[in-house]
Amino acid sequence: MKHEILLSAPLIIRNFLAYNETIKGKSSMSIDEYYFDLQTFFRYIISSRGLVSSVIEFDEIDISGVDIDLIKTITLTDLYSFLVFCKNERGNNAATRARKASTLRIFFRYLTVQEHLLDVNPAELLESPKIKQSLPKHLSLDDSLKLLNSVTGNNAERDYCILTLFLNCGMRLSELVSLNVSDIKSDGSLVITGKGNKQRLVYLNQACIDAVNAYLAVRPNEGVPANYKNALFISRNKRRISNKTVQHIVKTYLEKAGLGDQGLSTHKLRHTAATLMYQEGNVDVRVLKEILGHSNLGTTQIYTHVANKQIENAINANPLSKVKPNAKKDTD
Fold first, then answer.
1. Could you give the angle at the alpha carbon of 68 between the alpha carbons of 65 and 71, nearest 5°?
2. Residue 80 · residue 41 · CB < 8 Å
3. Rounded CA gap, 271 and 292, in Å?
4. 322 catalytic, yes or no?
5. Rounded Cα gap, residues 98 and 185, in angstroms
6. Residue 158 annotated as catalytic
7. Is 267 a catalytic residue?
């Protein structure tokens, strides 16, 4: 949890964040999102009830005085009014509003079940906005090969290894950056630390093993500070490579491969790995769930939708798909 959050958040929210970080094992990104969602919510409550001067800008409203007495006055109607405010005044899309609704459910459940501060949970029946399910963008097999073949330069072994792990193992950006040399085991397996510090084991295929070995042969050792000695990917400054640097690497090679105009990113390479494993490799969706580190099968099933959409497109591509039946002719 960031120090500035500890300083600015009211005690009741700090306790909630600490519980989710230490007991529930939520990532620092999730903790930050919880805080900012609750900060926006309580600013709305304070503003809508006239508890602050109208001359103060919304984003300047101080929530440090929020306590259980104020929280006990909040109703389900307040929660839905907040979501309407987020849509109309903040321009939040359905996915963002759904996340805020989820934060509110988690927060009020914590106050009711864990802390026993509320007799009635106002968020118990709070529903989330419906999110339009969109198919994830991904590279085709040919485009994936183009991307790998575009790698050149002084850091070619490192960059090629990064792209190979993304495209073969389907890991998240944060997971790749946090990899250590010690995570690579002698039996060809790799320990990946995912969300909430949950670890999973994947087995490297030959392409990954070759790419890792080629990189390790040239990986910098001299001048690397002791606390980065175990980091797998090292930057030119002899530090653990950052998220920003990896994003720049991926963007550079996507453009070099002629794929820079497709709205792709590091996360889209994760989608590519999953899609290729499911469609080309016939990997069972339950196995794919474990490889990707999804907490529930429903998240993984988006890749079955990708396959179904391709089947639909294939049928529609048949040149006979537009033929209309002739009008029935009368016969004597």
1. 90
2. no
3. 10
4. no
5. 40
6. no
7. yes
Q: What is the pLDDT of residues 103-154, one digit of tens each?
A: 999 999 999 999 999 999 999 999 988 876 655 677 788 888 999 999 999 9
Q: Which of 138, 270, 271, 289 is catalytic?
A: 270
| Residue with more model confidence, 206 or 308 | 206
* Token pair of 138 as six digits: 């991904």
Identify whether 105 is a catalytic site residue: no
CA nearest neighbour of 293 among 196, 200, 205, 203 = 200
Closest by CA to 184, choosing from 115, 231, 242, 235, is 231
Local confidence band at 164 (pLDDT 50, 70, 90 cut-offs): very high
Taking CA atoms, 157 is separated from 57, 175, 204, 212, 234, in Å, by 51, 19, 17, 8, 12
Point out the catalytic residue in the list 14, 146, 172, 219. 172
Is 195 one of the catalytic residues? yes
Pairwise CA distance, residues 167 & 144, whole Å: 8
> What type of residue sits at position 136?
P
Residue 194 pLDDT level (bands cut at 50, 70, 90): confident
pTM score of the predicted model? 0.59
